[in-house]
Amino acid sequence: MNDTLWPALMAAREAIAKLDGLGKLMPSYSLVLTPLQSREALRSSSMEGTYATPEQLLLYQAEPREPRSATDPANAWREVHNYGMALKTGQELLDSGYPLSTHLIRTLHRVLMSGVRGADKRPGEFRQSQVIVGSGGRYIPPPAHLLPDCLDAFETSLDSPNDIDALIWAFMVHYQFEAIHPFLDGNGRVGRLLLCLQIYKTLELSKPWLYLSPYFERHKDEYIDLLFRVSTHGDWYSWIAFCLEGARAQALDSIYRFEKLVALREEFFGSVQKLPNASARLYQIVDTLFERPVITVPSVAAQQNVTYPTAKSDIKKLIRCGILQTASNTRPHYFFAPRILDIAYADNP
Prior knowledge:
Number of helices: 15
Structural class: mainly alpha
Oligomer: single chain
Strand order of the largest sheet: 1-3-2
């Protein structure tokens, strides 16, 4: 490794270690992990031209539905939702002892492409025809008949022992996956999913805390150009330096969001404590808001095993505290926790 990369590597590793340490101390890991994963899904999808707001994604997750036409915005919402589902599926498989492998990659692709635009492009199956990348065919991946050999070599590299730092190796593997481009569609998103999961496993983090898509999206042109320069000029240095800075920046960003969310939770608890006859149930509802900051009266009634009037009364109390507000023009009525959304999803919380 080029000696000039050592400071960048150490800075990235230090920030990731601090992030993982804070994550272990969370009162509930889902307090911050779920918002981070949703933000990753939104940003990675938007890099491919699929857009949804956090509110739209949360409402869709609360009440999924099939798109009614090709122009129905539910198409985009489902694509973003599928990204989050693929990420959780990958984490569950790794946690169960499943290896990083081409089979795992095909599973991620199958979940990602299920029931969305592009579902006709062989979900979970590697391509059997040529594809081109970029306008004017800027990059041409290996032809289909070479894919088996390319993927065999790629799979071997996923877990092979080597003397390269695991974080740097993950960025090298990410380039290799994008260069092979093994699917007809969804390669960018699957590649970023794999990057999250490989960092989680090979750096032995307690949870998959680190997500690079927000950084890649902010620097999208540079991200694409540097991937291309590895192919055209063998410029690994610039690519790795870019990714290490991204890892450092995103780890520090997540730490900041961690601290803000934990402080907000304590503030919310303090507000609930001031209510007359505050029940333990209200604290439980507040905690669930950090995992999914949109609720309905029926969802609270079912979750807390209480009657509809009791759930409605609890929500009204949280509205009076300034914790919840009513979403406009929704049926049934949905209630958001806007301050959680601001911290979890805003570019500059």
